[in-house]
Amino acid sequence: MSKNELRHRPKTKQRGALTSNGPDSSNWPYAHGRMDPYAKVIGISVLVITSALIGIFRYQQYLRDIVITPLDSPRIILDNSSSPDVNPEKFWGTYRPHTYFGMKSRHKTSPVFGLMWMIQLTNRMPPPLRHWCNQGDGLEGYIWQMHDGVSFGIQEIREKLYTVKTEFVKQAGGSHGGDWSARISFVPKDPSTPVVLSSFFYAALDGDNGKLEPVLVNNRLRSVRGSHEGLGDFELLLPKVESSGQKESYLVTYANQLDQLEDISIAGMGVEAWDSARTLPYFSLAGRRVPKDVPGPNYIVKQVTTTLPFTMEVVFQSASFADRQNQLSGNVFSSLLEQRKKEFNDRFEETFRLNEKEYSEREINFAKAALSNMLGGIGYFYGSSLVQSSYNREPVSYWEAPLYTAVPSRPFFPRGFLWDEGFHNLLISAWDQEISKDIIGHWMDLMNTEGWIPREQILGPEARKKVPSEFVVQRNTNANPPTFFLPLQRLIKNMIKSNKQEDKVYLTALYPRLKTWFNYYNTSQNGKLPFTYRWHGRDPTVTKQLNPLTLASGLDDYPRASHPTDEERHVDLRCWIAFAAGVMADIARTLGQDWQEYEATHKLLSDNKLLDKLHWSPKGQQLEKPKPPPNPKHPHNSFNMDMDKIRVVLSEPTLQFVNALGYVSLFPFLLRIVDVESPKLNYILRDITDPNKLWTDYGLRSISRSSKFYGRYNTEHDPPYWRGPIWINMNYLCLSALRHYSLLPGPYQDKAKSVYEDLRKNVVQNIIKEYERTGYIWENYHDKTGEGKGSHPFTGWSALVVLIMAEKY
Ligand SMILES: *[C@@H]1O[C@H](CO)[C@@H](O)[C@H](O)[C@H]1NC(C)=O
Ligand SMILES: *[C@@H]1O[C@H](CO)[C@@H](O)[C@H](O)[C@H]1NC(C)=O
């Protein structure tokens, strides 16, 4: 995840090749009618030139297509891998993490189902409709309290006046992934304050893929019947709600695209009288509204309006499930849910052993929710990225493909991010290796022939709607940390140990992809000096950032060289590649492949002497560069509407170390490259524990408090992002390294152990404290107060707190 991605506007390159100056026609010697002796020559020349031009044209087309050419290697996830025949358990799920509650299948054109709600009889006109997770809704908190990623989930959504509970459970049967049911309850917090609320439950097709028809009894919507190529025939039962004095209505209509459901619902509402005195108006859906020129309805909503509390159930039944014993509702639903809860609780303790570590029930429930919201945040997306290479004048479409992935934040980043996903799968694989293998397989299949994987995946209309179109384009020069090697290290060992046929097939497809992926980093991201590496995509021409962003590194505004050039060398990237080479050597060895070159690269890049020579900045020898003046402005100009502050360079830049102690400086330690005996380890431990540098009572801050970059704005508008706040993925890596050094005999073993214990306690206690205080798990934490900051809920890598509690590294 890279927040500033949204502000990064890729420049379209101006290319001169196609407009190069040809010979001026007035000088053309054959232009004036001298004929014969030359005619043949001309003919041949034309032929030669034409074929040369065709050749050039083809070659240019080839160059333009490289970026969108899939890697020629067997895929890990086959076309039928997610189908209900091959993988029925995971066919249905809460795969729309951007909604408060939404279900869909893992078919590329799956119909979708979901919940909206709206408070009635208020003075807001029209009252806000809840549907997509939105920080602006100001909820007091929402989180999956339990979710196993496959078969059931229980979520609590806290509004100011009432609580919404969404529970779902699945039942296997038939040949289309079986049935599922959802129970949705609205409970007022204070029963003496009456709340009138409308709940909306809908079924929608993705365009014209399939059929939907309402089943009406006495003009009440009783169910929706449908059919779809991947789902067969199905029915969504919408039973009568348990409540008195309710009103019902419905909408049967058509939506061009799935991102329009909310707007169409609002447009399909009229005002009606709530009470017999006709003094109170409320909003009610208008019935059948199907435009003439469409094949039929594809969007059907049932609205129930009532005074809280009330509970409703929706029951999805697959027609191919012929021998169903019971409808999945009422007591059948309740007892199956109870069974799943028990299984979840047992498995949670078996996996993470938090009882054994003497955490309280309250803390364990927090950890269950953190894990569950990551699992409940797994989505299934289908579509293509917009990408661009130096050969494309305009962005081009990547091939269409599915992506099964967790997301960093349901409201704010509800899509796949490459480096986040490696961290996510540390936790996911601890819970369910099959889910992780599936996720990593999907990502690896998105690799192009160069070994590049676009780092932000914005697939399908629902995902696109969240990102302005000019920010969608991904560039093949820009990498992102290869964090999948973190979970793969253990996953691959386990696969080899299990010795299952399906795992062998998986590894056979995975390995060549990993090789190509590694090679992409090792060749395209290298620096000018041998064995140095550099993040690409820093824009030397930007004027509105004091220090041009390094989005590829994932640490957007973390200070780097003030003037991006190809002479930069980035120690974090070097360490990522050293680490990846080590894992590759391991994998290759266990698979009986050539491992020597990876081992050699790993050794070379981990060579502490070489590392020191290239990257160690000796204290006291720092060259200071004059600071840019505070907030210089554009010259005033009545035609210049762009009044943002820009950077001004006051003196010629010189090559030097960027002396900003922080997460990047720690990388040789974080990825365990520093030798256990190295005195550098001592310096690092000293800097980590210094409250004037990185230590806080809540975790390690991203930049030393004594750095000139600490807490500084990089642009006029963007508050410090990786310049002070505490990030949990980096604290996880740090704890993992401390643990490593505390287990190996060496001069700093005891020190590492005590730092480990203090840091672990600080991180865990603060995240729990903030969760209880605010209702949320946060994107990062303030280094002075420990307060949660940024987007929320953020149960991407902040959920690694579960592994920290469990001491699983
Ligand atoms: C899935 O597809 C593969 C390759 O196309 C095929 O070999 C396999 O039999 C298919 N599996 C099922 C259950 O259809
Ligand atoms: C990585 O690149 C270096 C050259 O920069 C090369 O010497 C080394 O063999 C490469 N490693 C692998 C595993 O390909």
Automatic annotation (TrEMBL):
<comment type="similarity">
    <text>Belongs to the glycosyl hydrolase 63 family.</text>
</comment>
<dbReference type="GO" id="GO:0009311">
    <property type="term" value="P:oligosaccharide metabolic process"/>
</dbReference>
<dbReference type="InterPro" id="IPR031335">
    <property type="entry name" value="Glyco_hydro_63_C"/>
</dbReference>
<feature type="region of interest" description="Disordered">
    <location>
        <begin position="1"/>
        <end position="29"/>
    </location>
</feature>
<dbReference type="InterPro" id="IPR038518">
    <property type="entry name" value="Glyco_hydro_63N_sf"/>
</dbReference>
<feature type="compositionally biased region" description="Polar residues">
    <location>
        <begin position="17"/>
        <end position="28"/>
    </location>
</feature>
<feature type="region of interest" description="Disordered">
    <location>
        <begin position="619"/>
        <end position="638"/>
    </location>
</feature>
<keyword id="KW-0472">Membrane</keyword>
<feature type="domain" description="Glycosyl hydrolase family 63 N-terminal">
    <location>
        <begin position="91"/>
        <end position="271"/>
    </location>
</feature>
<dbReference type="InterPro" id="IPR031631">
    <property type="entry name" value="Glyco_hydro_63N"/>
</dbReference>
<dbReference type="InterPro" id="IPR008928">
    <property type="entry name" value="6-hairpin_glycosidase_sf"/>
</dbReference>
<keyword id="KW-0812">Transmembrane</keyword>
<keyword id="KW-1133">Transmembrane helix</keyword>
<keyword id="KW-0378">Hydrolase</keyword>
<protein>
    <recommendedName>
        <fullName>Mannosyl-oligosaccharide glucosidase</fullName>
        <ecNumber>3.2.1.106</ecNumber>
    </recommendedName>
</protein>
<dbReference type="GO" id="GO:0006487">
    <property type="term" value="P:protein N-linked glycosylation"/>
</dbReference>
<keyword id="KW-0256">Endoplasmic reticulum</keyword>
<dbReference type="Pfam" id="PF16923">
    <property type="entry name" value="Glyco_hydro_63N"/>
</dbReference>
<dbReference type="Pfam" id="PF03200">
    <property type="entry name" value="Glyco_hydro_63"/>
</dbReference>
<keyword id="KW-0325">Glycoprotein</keyword>
<dbReference type="GO" id="GO:0005789">
    <property type="term" value="C:endoplasmic reticulum membrane"/>
</dbReference>
<keyword id="KW-0735">Signal-anchor</keyword>
<feature type="domain" description="Glycosyl hydrolase family 63 C-terminal">
    <location>
        <begin position="329"/>
        <end position="807"/>
    </location>
</feature>
<dbReference type="GO" id="GO:0004573">
    <property type="term" value="F:Glc3Man9GlcNAc2 oligosaccharide glucosidase activity"/>
</dbReference>
<comment type="pathway">
    <text>Glycan metabolism; N-glycan degradation.</text>
</comment>
<dbReference type="InterPro" id="IPR012341">
    <property type="entry name" value="6hp_glycosidase-like_sf"/>
</dbReference>
<dbReference type="InterPro" id="IPR004888">
    <property type="entry name" value="Glycoside_hydrolase_63"/>
</dbReference>
<comment type="function">
    <text>Cleaves the distal alpha 1,2-linked glucose residue from the Glc(3)Man(9)GlcNAc(2) oligosaccharide precursor.</text>
</comment>
<keyword id="KW-0326">Glycosidase</keyword>
<feature type="transmembrane region" description="Helical">
    <location>
        <begin position="38"/>
        <end position="59"/>
    </location>
</feature>
